[in-house]
C-alpha cells in the first residue's frame, strides 16, 4: 500500500516527501481541485514512462503538464494573446490550454506524445505550491487505471493504484470533481477539445468569441486521449432513465421522482436541488458507490446539458459507450 500524507495537517512534510519521490523519477498521487492526479517530472522520460505503466495507459496519449503559474508556463510554451488572456483570467483553475511548445523546452516528448503542442494547466492550491517547490512541471493524468473512473479522493487512489505507487497526498474530496476543460486556439478559432470543470460559457464571456466544438468523429484525433469508452464502472450504464428496472442502481439528479426508485439496489442523488456544481463534485464517487452495490446496470436520470452539465454528460456518454 502507498503511504498517505494528509496535507492539511502536514503540509511541509508532504511537500518534502513528494519532492523526494518525484526527484527519484517516480510518480505520486496529488490532489488538485478537479481530480487526483498521478504526477511525475515532465522533463524526465523514465518518470513519465512510470505514469503510463502505472495507469496501463496507451503511450500515444499526450499528458497535461501542470505549472506553478503563467510565468513558468511561458518558459516552456508560446502563448498567443487569446491563450494568454484565458490563462490570466482562469489560472489557477480547471482550464487546460493547448499551446505550441518552445524548441528544446525540456518537456519530454513522452509527455506530449511527440506533438509540437502541449496542454498546460495551473492547478489551484496545494498542487501549485508543490510544483513551485519541485521546480519542474508535473505531467499528471487522473490517478486511476486507464479507462476506469477518475479518482476524487485519496481513498479512491489507494484502492485502485495503492499497490503500484509509493505516496498519495490527501487533501480530502476534490472540489470540482471532473477534469479540466481543454481549449486550443487554432487558425484564429477557439476550440473546445474537452468539456470539463470550467463551463464553456464562462470561457466565451472572457474570450468574446464562441467555442468551436469538435465533430464527434474528429474528437479522437484532436484530443488523442478522448477515446469513446472511458470513465467506465464495472456495471453497464443506462442514460436518461425515467424508471428503475430490476436489479439496477439509480443515480438521479434534482427533485423529480423516478418511477420504481424503491426497486433500486441503491439510490444516490447527485444534487437534490439540481445544482450542477454539486453534481460534478459527487459524480465519480457516486459511480463507484453504485458500482459497489453489485448492480448489473447503473441507471442515470437526465442531466441538463448546460454549464457544468456539458462535462457531466460527456463523462456519462463515455461511461455508457461500448467497451473495448
Ligand atoms: O483536471 C485535469 O485535467 C486532470 C488533473 C489531474 O489535472 N488531468 C487530466 O490529464 O485529465 P490527462 O493527462 O488525463 O488529460 C490528457 C488529455 C489528453 O487525453 C488529450 O485529450 C488532452 O489532454 N491533451 C493533452 N495534450 C494535448 C495536446 N498537445 N493536444 C491536444 N490534446 C491534448
Ligand atoms: Mg483520466
UniProtKB/TrEMBL annotation:
Compartments annotated for it: namely: Cytoplasm
Q: Which residues bind ATP?
A: 57, 61, 117, 150, 194, 231
Gene Ontology MF term list: ATP binding; double-stranded RNA binding; L-threonylcarbamoyladenylate synthase; tRNA binding
Q: What is its EC number?
A: 2.7.7.87
Instruction: Write down the InterPro entries for this protein, in alphabetical order.
Output: DHBP_synth_RibB-like_a/b_dom (IPR017945), Sua5-like_dom (IPR006070), Sua5/YwlC_C (IPR038385), Sua5_C (IPR005145), T(6)A37_SUA5 (IPR010923), TC-AMP_synthase_SUA5 (IPR050156)
**Which UniProt keywords are given for this protein, alphabetically ordered?**
ATP-binding, Cytoplasm, Nucleotide-binding, Nucleotidyltransferase, Transferase, tRNA processing
Q: What is its main location?
A: cytoplasm
Function, in words: Required for the formation of a threonylcarbamoyl group on adenosine at position 37 (t(6)A37) in tRNAs that read codons beginning with adenine.
Q: Which PANTHER family match?
A: SUA5, THREONYLCARBAMOYL-AMP SYNTHASE
Q: What protein does this entry describe?
A: Threonylcarbamoyl-AMP synthase
Amino acid at each position: 500500500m502507498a503511504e498517505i500524507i494528509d496535507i492539511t495537517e502536514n503540509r511541509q512534510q508532504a511537500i518534502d516527501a513528494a519532492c523526494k519521490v518525484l526527484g527519484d523519477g517516480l510518480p505520486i498521487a496529488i490532489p488538485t481541485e478537479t481530480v487526483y492526479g498521478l504526477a511525475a517530472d515532465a522533463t524526465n522520460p523514465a518518470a513519465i514512462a512510470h505514469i503510463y505503466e502505472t495507469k496501463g495507459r496507451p503511450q500515444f496519449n499526450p499528458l497535461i503538464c501542470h505549472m506553478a503559474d503563467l510565468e513558468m508556463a511561458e518558459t516552456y510554451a508560446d502563448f498567443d494573446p487569446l491563450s494568454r488572456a484565458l490563462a490570466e483570467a482562469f489560472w489557477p483553475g480547471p482550464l487546460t490550454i493547448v499551446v505550441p511548445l518552445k524548441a528544446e523546452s525540456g518537456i519530454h516528448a513522452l509527455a506530449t506524445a511527440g506533438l509540437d503542442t502541449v496542454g498546460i494547466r495551473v492547478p489551484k492550491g496545494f498542487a501549485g505550491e508543490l510544483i513551485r517547490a519541485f521546480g519542474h512541471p508535473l505531467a499528471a493524468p487522473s490517478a486511476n487505471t486507464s479507462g476506469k473512473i477518475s479518482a476524487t479522493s485519496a481513498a479512491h487512489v489507494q484502492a485502485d493504484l495503492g499497490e503500484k505507487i509509493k505516496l498519495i497526498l490527501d487533501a480530502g474530496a476534490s472540489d470540482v470533481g471532473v477534469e479540466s476543460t481543454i481549449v486550443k486556439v487554432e487558425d484564429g478559432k477557439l476550440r473546445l477539445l474537452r468539456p470539463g470543470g470550467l463551463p464553456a460559457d464562462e470561457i466565451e464571456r472572457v474570450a468574446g468569441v464562441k467555442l468551436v466544438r469538435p465533430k464527434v468523429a474528429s474528437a479522437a484525433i484532436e484530443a488523442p486521449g478522448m477515446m469513446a469508452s472511458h470513465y467506465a464502472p464495472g456495471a453497464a450504464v443506462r442514460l436518461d432513465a425515467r424508471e428503475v428496472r430490476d436489479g439496477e442502481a439509480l443515480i438521479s439528479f434534482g427533485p423529480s421522482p423516478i418511477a420504481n426508485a424503491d426497486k433500486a439496489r441503491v439510490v444516490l442523488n447527485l444534487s437534490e436541488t439540481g445544482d450542477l456544481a454539486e453534481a460534478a463534485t459527487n459524480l465519480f464517487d457516486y459511480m463507484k458507490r453504485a458500482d459497489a452495490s453489485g448492480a448489473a446496470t447503473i441507471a442515470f436520470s437526465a442531466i441538463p446539458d448546460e454549464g457544468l452539465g456539458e462535462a457531466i454528460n460527456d463523462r456519462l456518454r463515455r461511461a455508457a459507450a461500448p467497451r473495448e
